[in-house]
C-alpha cells in the first residue's frame, strides 16, 4: 500500500512537470521560433556557438 502511494505521488509529480514543459514548448512553437529567438536576444541570452564542440560532447 505504501509503495503504491509513493508510485502515484511520483506519477503525479512527473505529469505536472511534464505539463509545464509541454506548455512552455507549445507556446514557443505557436509564437514561432524566430520570435522566440528575438525574445532571447532582447534578454541577453548568448547564441549557441557554431562549429565548436561543446565541452560535454564526446571527441
Helix and strand arrangement:
Elements: H1 2-31, H2 33-42
Helix pairs in contact: 1-2
Structure description:
It is a single chain. The protein is mostly helical. The chain is built from two helices and no strands. Helix 1 (2-31) packs across helix 2 (33-42). The model has no long low-confidence stretch (mean pLDDT 86).
Number of helices: 2
Overall mean pLDDT stands at 86
Helix content: 55-70%
- The whole-angstrom Rg is 18 Å
The general outline is elongated
Range of strand content: under 5%
Number of strands: 0
The poorly predicted ranges are: none
Give a short account of the largest sheet.
none
Structural class call reads: mainly alpha
End-to-end C-alpha gap? 48 Å
Give a concise summary.
The protein is an all-alpha fold and 59 residues long.
Amino acid at each position: 500500500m505504501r509503495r503504491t502511494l509513493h508510485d502515484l505521488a511520483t506519477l503525479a509529480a512527473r505529469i505536472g512537470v511534464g505539463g509545464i514543459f509541454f506548455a512552455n514548448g507549445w507556446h514557443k512553437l505557436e509564437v514561432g521560433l524566430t520570435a522566440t529567438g528575438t525574445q532571447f536576444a532582447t534578454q541577453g541570452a548568448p547564441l549557441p556557438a557554431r562549429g565548436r564542440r561543446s565541452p560535454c560532447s564526446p571527441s
